[in-house]
Amino acid sequence: MHFGENKVQESIDKWSNIKINNNIKLHLIGKLQTNKVKLAVNIFDYIHSLDNEKLATKIANEQIKQNKNLKIFIQINIGGEEQKSGVKKEDVSDFYKYCKNLNLNIIGTMCIPPKEGSSQNYFSEMNRINKELNLVDLSMGMSSDYLEASQNNATFLRIGSNIFGRRD
Questions:
Q1: What are the b/e assignments for 74-111, b being 16+ CB within 10 Å?
Q2: Counting CB atoms within 10 angstroms of each CB, which of 67, 79, 85, 131 has the fewest?
Q3: CATH number of 2-163: 3.40.50.1980, 3.90.1570.10, 3.20.20.190, 3.20.20.10?
Q4: Average pLDDT, stretch 36-46?
C-alpha cells in the first residue's frame, strides 16, 4: 500500500510505528527542507520534490549513512511560476545528470501546474520531458485534474482530498 504525506514531522508522528511491521510505502509529496533530510530518508520510500543541488547532495549523503536507496522524482516548475519550487524546464537535463552522478535513484519527474488555465498542455510537456530523460514514472495530477494527468501517462496521482476530504 502506498500513502503520501506533505510534512516530514507529521509523517514521523503518524507512521513510525505503523511502518515497522507493514508493507507500507510512504511518499513525501511536499517540499523537503535540507534540515529535515535525515528524518525524511529514515521514514520515506519515495521523495517527489527534489528541486535543487544542495538538497540532492544532502539526500545522497544521508542515504549512504542510513544505507537506503529512495526512489526520487525531480520536481519541475513546469509553469515557470516565481512562487513555486522546482527546477526550470531548461535546466532539467543538467540537473538530472548531476543527480545521477550522486547515484540518486531518479525514477521520474513531478509537477504542479498553474491553477489558472488547462493542465493538459503542462502534462503533455511533462510527458515529453520524461521521455527525453528515459524515465518511466511521472508524478502529476491532483483531485481536480487527475484525468488529464492519467491521459498523459502519469503513474502517480495525488488525489487525497477526493478520498479523505480537504485539509483544515
A1: bbbbbbeeeebbbbebeebeebbeebeebebebbbbbb
A2: 67
A3: 3.20.20.10
A4: 96
Output the nine-digit C-alpha cell for 110: 513531478
Instruction: Give, in degrees to the nearest 5, the angle at Cα 4 between 111 and 118.
Output: 30
Question: In the structure grid, which three cell numbers stand for residue 31, read together?
Answer: 517540499
Strand order in the sheet with 156-158: 2-5, 25-28, 46-50, 71-75, 105-110, 137-142, 156-158
Report the distance separating Cα 26 and Cα 77, nearest Å: 23
| Grid coordinates of 96 | 538530472
Q: What does residue 49 show for φ and ψ, rounded to 5 degrees?
A: -130, 40
pTM of this structure: 0.91
* Mean pLDDT confidence for 24-33: 93
Q: What does the DSSP assignment read for the chain?
A: -EEEES-HHHHHHHHHHHHTTS--EEEE-S---GGGHHHHHHH-SEEEEE-SHHHHHHHHHHHHHHT---EEEEEB-TT--TTS-SB-GGGHHHHHHHHHHTT-EEEEEE----SSS-SHHHHHHHHHHHHHTT--EEEEEETTTHHHHHHTT-SEEE-HHHHH----
